[in-house]
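Researcher: We're teaching a course module on how sequence relates to structure. For the next exercise, students receive a sequence and then see the predicted structure as tokens, so they can try to spot secondary structure elements on their own. Here is the exercise chain.
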Amino acid sequence: MSTSLTDIGPHHDIVISTRVRIARNVEGYSFPHKLNDDTSFALMKDVQTAVKAFPEHQGDDYSFVRLKQLESLERQVYVEEHVISPALLANAGRSGFFYNQTKGTSIMVNEEDHIRIQNMQQGFQLEAAWNEADQVDNMLGKKLPYAFDDTFGYLTACPTNLGTGTRVSIMLHLPALTLMGHIDGFIQAAGQLGFAVRGLFGEGSEYMGNLYQVSNQITLGLEEHEIISRLEDVVVQVIQKERLARRNLFDNKKIGLEDRIFRSLGILSYARSLTWKEAMQYLSDLKLGTSLGLISTCTLEELRTLMELIQPAKLQQHCGKLMDETERDRQRAELIRCKINGGGTQHVNE
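Model: And here is the predicted structure for the students to work with:
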């Protein structure tokens, strides 16, 4: 189970991924927080019927998963892979999702809204992500009566999603701007332009590994193409500023930069225990060093894969067993050390 696509996308040294998410609700049903078990199940069946009716048998490419039928670890793996949201997990007893792994598309049912269509692409691929999500939205809309108002647009459980119901987000790796002390200014400027900057898993999540998720806050009064265009303009500027900051560090603070990167390489090469947060920081330093050509221990793609694999649930799935935090820290260090020292990403057998 993995969302990894073969195309790593443009600007992949800075832009980790692109996500488009569309919120929709179905007429005749209360919002999910008002639904009981029977009506929640009835809604899932309606969506399932609509997916099966996709033209040219496209619905056959989607697998359906009821969260209540999954073990806790497997549910969390889907969250860490960004296939589903933490909010869907919070309503696990009454929710489910459809997933097309090849396209990177998931259709969440009974999250905050009845339907959350999501497409994930690697790198900076706004148009591709939008086209995939929009196509699914159109196919579902032909079979399901969406709740729509001529004044407010698509009706959603939270007023902040009214209008298009579209949220577009870009996950950025910004180590140089962070080291230069410019991140707070970036977050403030983004907010003034109508964008939110959040952590690895969106709202309320922690910043880790110098990864920042930028998304639009306004969905009402803007067309989808305007939302995408405005976010694209902001991200292009951030990419330019990050590249300039990296060059500044390389040209003017190279000794300090090299010291930081090689210290991180040394720790990852020999550490026997690593928390998730500290491992993410050290791997972020290695990504920066790799992008600047200072080290060649791993490729950017290998480091991205490592960052995914060392998450708590993914790590336990990879090792094939449940582990407490102490054991996870030990196995995380083993996994990274083995990869850094040329042994691949397999875990060390007991």
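Model: If you want an answer key for the exercise: The mean pLDDT is 92. Residues 254-340 form one domain.
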